[in-house]
């Protein structure tokens, strides 16, 4: 089967010493929303810059839509859209004019231009502001204008580098709503980098975690979370002690993989908390055991990250380290 | 080649649209050259120490002052382009089908758009002060075209120099550091013959001398004997600078 993106053993070394990518292998089916998550400086942006033909790999191979990124850069650029992390529109002209310049660069037929640009602006909810200078737009509107710009050529793959960085929650939601509708309308593949776990969890079909230049794991959000272990039902008991008889009954339940007692708290490890809970409730009811509180804990992508990267996302590297790596990459 | 032209035209159109929204910079940048023509020129012409070949001194320096002003525009334009690499604009442009070279050269050439508008603001003021231009529209348009193409070369110089700078703070002084040596070691304010020999030698390789000579011939003196040499020098200058800027720019975006 043809993969939208097929990367084999890719490395990229900056200035002979900084290994930004260290043997990346990655295959992404077309039509999927794919999220690459990882801490700052993990190599997310470097990988995206290679896939969008901005820089060349040091070794290894990368194919986008079946085309080699080194040999067929020009063909790839006709088929992909790209929105960099930093603002990428001209602020001293209007939103419409920004799209017009790009429509000309992409050699769109002059009779179609107006219609295609207006459609894109309408889809992104910017049509009322099309003649305003971009300088007057909010952060979320600028991101949506950039998406409109990428939509002009109906790209087969849309690359987004940290699409919602620096946006407030409502602007983030609006951007994602538009991206999802964009993807379903053109059945494009979407490849995005992020360090927001919740975003990857909510919107992606598949996730890969990158750390120190290597892909450490990959799969759907559900599968990844499943890997770190099941869900937990936590019972906070009434009274002074937990009855042994009750614990015995709970241990006998098929759904209970593990029971851990910690003072008055009983943690029951289960596969799926929602379906296991009624059985636990039944035991509670028949044994006349009363509980103060029941809580369900599900593993999050953060837990997945801790397992594969060995540390929490936020705590990796000091800001100085990250800055040094970025400076070296940028020169 | 068609792709190349199309991308260049798109970059030029971008510049025209920017100017349509905001022309403040054109007006503020016109102040300095107008002071040269309105104050320095008339005062120095009283001295009558500079052989101008029978042309009033203010008229003599007008092309030089125009070129100095448009070169300023181009040099800063090139610096702005390097600043843009810190935003995402250039990254996105480089992920379009347009070639990297056409983007760099197109942006350099679009500095010529600003330069022409700069000239169109200064010339009427010069007329009011009493500078006599050759009343031939074909000559005038030719002069504008020469300024347009030369501007692209000067913008490329600044792209080249700025690509070696690591921080944008260091860019600020560079504009002056490029322009004033070019300006004073050219025939903008006095004939090259008046200079010390070593400067005369420098002036031989100074592109600004050739641009000033061509524009002075077309706008003021009507002496076009050196025009072919001037055009050749400008074309050579543009070609070399475009290649150098493109290569160095490709290096820094990586």
Brief summary:
Chain A is an alpha/beta fold and 331 residues long. In chain A, 39% of the residues lie in helices and 27% in strands.
Question: Can you give a write-up of this model?
Answer:
- Chain A has 331 residues and is an alpha/beta fold.
- Chain A has two domains: 3-225 and 304-330, P-loop containing nucleotide triphosphate hydrolases (Rossmann fold); 230-298, Alpha-Beta Plaits, CATH 3.30.70.260.
- Chain A is built from twelve helices and 14 strands.
- The model of chain A has no long low-confidence stretch (mean pLDDT 86).
- Chain B is mostly helical.
- Chain B has one domain (2-45, 54-253).
- In chain B, 78% of the residues lie in helices and 0% in strands.
- Chain B has ten helices and no strands.
- Chain B has helices spanning 2-21, 24-47, 57-84, 89-93, 100-129, 137-162, 171-184, 197-204, 207-221, 227-253.
- The longest helix of chain B is centred in the middle third of the chain and has 30 residues, at 100-129.
- The radius of gyration of chain B is 18 Å and the shape is globular.
- The model of chain B has no long low-confidence stretch (mean pLDDT 88).
- The chains are: A alpha/beta (331), B mainly alpha (254).
- Chains A and B meet through helix 2, strand 6 and helix 3 of A and helix 1 and helix 4 of B.
Number of discrete domains of chain A: 2
Number of helices of chain A: 12
Helical/strand content category of chain A: alpha/beta
Backbone CA Rg of chain B: 18 Å
């Amino acid at each position: 089967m043809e993969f939208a993106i097929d990367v084999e053993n890719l490395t990229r070394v900056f200035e002979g010493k900084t290994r930004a990518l260290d043997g990346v292998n990655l295959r992404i089916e077309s039509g999927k929303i794919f999220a690459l998550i990882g801490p700052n400086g993990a190599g997310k942006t470097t990988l995206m810059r290679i896939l969008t033909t901005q820089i060349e790999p040091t070794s290894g191979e990368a194919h986008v839509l079946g085309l080699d990124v080194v040999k067929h850069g020009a063909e790839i650029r006709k088929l992909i859209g790209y929105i960099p992390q930093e603002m990428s529109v001209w602020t001293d002209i209007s939103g419409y004019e920004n799209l017009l310049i790009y429509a000309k660069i992409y050699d769109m037929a002059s009779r179609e231009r107006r219609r295609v640009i207006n459609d894109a602006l309408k889809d992104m909810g910017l049509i009322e502001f099309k003649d305003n200078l971009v300088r007057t737009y909010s952060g979320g509107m600028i991101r949506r204008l950039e998406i409109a710009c990428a939509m002009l050529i109906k790209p087969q793959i849309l690359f987004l580098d940290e699409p919602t960085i620096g946006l407030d929650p409502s602007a983030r939601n609006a951007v994602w709503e538009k991206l999802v509708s964009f993807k379903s309308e053109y059945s494009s593949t979407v490849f995005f980098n992020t360090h927001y776990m919740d975003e990857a969890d909510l919107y992606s079909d598949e996730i890969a975690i990158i750390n120190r230049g290597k892909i450490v794991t990959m799969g759907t959000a559900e599968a990844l979370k499943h890997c770190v272990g099941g869900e937990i039902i936590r019972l906070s008991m009434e009274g002074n002690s937990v009855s042994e008889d009750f614990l015995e009954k709970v241990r006998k339940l098929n759904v209970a993989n593990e029971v851990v007692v910690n003072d008055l708290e009983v943690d029951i490890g289960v596969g799926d908390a929602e379906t296991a809970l009624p059985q636990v409730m039944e035991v509670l009811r028949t044994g006349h055991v009363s509980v103060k509180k029941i809580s369900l804990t599900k593993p999050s992508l953060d837990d997945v990250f801790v397992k594969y990267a060995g540390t929490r996302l936020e705590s990796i590297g000091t800001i100085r380290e990250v800055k040094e790596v970025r400076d070296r990459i940028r020169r | 080649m068609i792709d190349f032209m199309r991308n260049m035209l798109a970059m030029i159109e971008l510049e025209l649209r920017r100017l349509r929204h905001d022309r403040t910079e054109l007006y503020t940048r016109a102040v300095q050259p107008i002071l040269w023509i309105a104050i320095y020129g008339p005062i120095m012409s009283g001295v009558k120490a500079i052989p101008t070949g029978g042309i009033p001194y203010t008229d003599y320096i007008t092309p030089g002052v125009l070129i100095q002003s448009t070169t300023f525009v181009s040099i800063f334009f090139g610096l702005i382009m390097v600043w843009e690499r810190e935003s995402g604009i250039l990254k996105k442009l480089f992920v379009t089908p347009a070639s990297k070279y056409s983007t760099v050269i197109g942006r350099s050439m679009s500095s010529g758009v600003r330069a022409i508008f700069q000239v169109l603001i200064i010339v009427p003021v010069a007329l009011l002060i009493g500078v006599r231009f050759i009343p031939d529209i074909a000559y005038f348009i030719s002069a504008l075209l020469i300024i347009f193409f030369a501007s692209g070369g000067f913008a490329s110089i600044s792209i080249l120099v700025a690509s070696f700078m690591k921080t944008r703070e260091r860019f600020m002084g560079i504009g002056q550091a490029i322009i004033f040596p070019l300006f004073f070691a050219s025939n903008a304010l006095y004939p090259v013959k008046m200079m010390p020999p070593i400067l005369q030698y420098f002036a031989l390789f100074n592109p600004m001398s050739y641009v000033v000579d061509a524009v002075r011939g077309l706008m003021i003196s009507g002496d076009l004997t050196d025009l072919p040499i001037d055009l050749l020098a400008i074309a050579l200058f543009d070609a070399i600078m475009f290649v150098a800027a493109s290569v160095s720019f490709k290096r820094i975006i990586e």
